[in-house]
Design goal:
With 50 residues, the protein is mainly alpha-helical. It has helices at residues 2-9, 13-18, 20-48. The chain has three helices and no strands. The protein is elongated, with a radius of gyration of 15 Å.
């Protein structure tokens, strides 16, 4: 799991846990990705039901 964190966000869990600014940047990116996926799913869902 450490490797996935390193690959996804360019830092390990130790650095993520120590630095608030790094955590905030990661969480902001995660939220942005979540919103993009949510919109994509809604778009695909509407295409399937038309």
């Amino acid at each position: 799991m450490e490797k996935a964190m390193q690959q996804s966000h360019g830092m390990g869990y130790k650095e993520y846990g120590r630095k608030l600014d790094k955590r905030m940047a990661v969480e902001k990116r995660r939220n942005k990705d979540y919103e993009k996926c949510k919109h994509l799913v809604a778009e695909l869902d509407s295409q399937l039901h038309t």
